[in-house]
Amino acid sequence: MGQQQLLLIILGVIIVGIAIAVGLSLFSAQSVQANKDAIINDINNIAANAYQFRIRPVSMGGGGGVYNNSKGSTAGYTVPAKMSSNENATYTAQVQDADNVVILGQNPTNPTQMSVQATLGSDGRLTSWSYGSEFQ
Q: What are the extents of the domains in the chain?
């Protein structure tokens, strides 16, 4: 082979290597974004469940108008067992007071950097979203 052909082969190998590296980077970024979106969707479902608890009467196992249920014999809102963990994340709810619940979703592979937290208010709306460093 001539010297020009060898240079073209080397150049081709370098271009293919760069294309593979860029493809892997794009795939990784898409995977992180998909996980973030899945956690946000799960938090929305948990928030709907928490709000249903709030508006349900105490006699039916609800909160009677509050999240912490200081009015009845049952405890405040907790994430149901079926919703507390899945392949996306592990979810916890911290009742702040009668009108606010903080819902936290943490990815099991990297819980500190891949997490989403939102506050659920008395009107059933999620506010003050915060994200771990991988999701920003």
A: 3-135
